[in-house]
Amino acid sequence: MVTKISGSTTKETTLREDVTKLKTLIDTKTAELLELTKTLGSKQEFAEKNPTYTATANSISELKVEIETIEKLIKTTRKEYVTAYAEASSHQKLIEHFTTQKREYEEESVKNEELIEEQKAIITEQEENAKLRKTVEDTTKAQQLVFTSHQKVVEIEEELSEAKKTKEEKIAALNKEKDLKEKEQKATKEELKIHETKKGELEATLKATTAKNEITRITQEITGITTSITKATTKITAIEQAITGITTEVTAVTTEWTGTITDLTTKLTTAKADAEKDEEAAAKAVNKLPGTPGSDVKIAGGVIDKSDKGSAN
Q: What is the rounded distance in angstroms from the CA atom of residue 49 to the CA atom of residue 55?
């Protein structure tokens, strides 16, 4: 019995150390991810204000790669953390059970003959250990399923958040492009108006002019302005077509990503419902473990919450 307690304690201690290390790594990388995200936001804001500064664009690309690497590491580490935590919890129950058994057997042996009680204890231990191994195995599987279910919820939430972010970024970029085109359109129309006004003035002057040289000069100038008017008109048409194209693309992006977000939202709802069912099943499995009489155990997000209803002697 002592050997089992010692073995389970050693294994549980090792697992707890692993859990602590994994949790520390997750927290550290999450903090790094937060800082990198803030830095990326600042860089993007700077890039918007200084579009000709190419070094910022390179820095943004490097930050995005670094963020993606950390996100993958966090996801992998979280899975390792889930498995280690579930196994550590199961070993803790074994330690509590074997410790309780050891104390009960020692107290009972004082009152009875040593040889008889030793044989009874061996038989009882063999029977209970057989049941315990099966119960612990079932409980471990149920708890691992809870962690897996919640991991799925977390992954879908992350995917949903990324989809919303992507949609916002794409639409923002298109709107920015559209705004630039509209400004260019406005400036070109103003330029066209100036040319048309100038042409009108020249045509009026031409009507009142009789000198041949002056007529030739004014006519040439009108021809040049007419060419400028044609170019400006052509440019305005091209800009209008570009704005129409951008508007169409905004609609397409909105439709595409709204559909994706809707699908992910549905998946998230289903995953949360499945996780809740797994929690209930795991709670029932934990309540079957020896050492939990009169207790109502609930597992939420992989965390065991035990509330005593009474005591058992």
A: 13
CA distance 102 to 242: 82
Contact by Cβ (8 Å): 206, 225 = no
* E-assigned strand segments in 111-199: none
H helix count then E strand count, the chain: 4, 2
Pairwise CA distance, residues 90 & 307, whole Å: 18
Return the C-alpha torsion angle 238, 239, 242, 244, nearest 10: -110
Distances (CA, A) of 145 to 77, 78, 110, 140: 17, 15, 44, 8
DSSP 112: S
What phi and psi, each to the nearest 5 degrees, are found at residue 292? -125, 45
DSSP labels, 262-298: HHHHHHHHHHHHHHHHHHHHHHHHHHTSTT-TTEEEE
Contact predicate 88/22, CB 8 Å: no
pTM of the shown model: 0.46
The contacts of residue 236 (CB under 8 Å, 6+ apart) are 185, 188, 189, 192
Contact predicate 152/249, CB 8 Å: no
Residue 261 contacts residue 160 (beta carbons within 8 Å):
yes
Helix, strand, or coil here: 309?
coil
- Give residue-wise pLDDT tens across range 248-301: 999 999 999 999 999 999 999 999 999 898 888 888 877 776 665 444 444 444
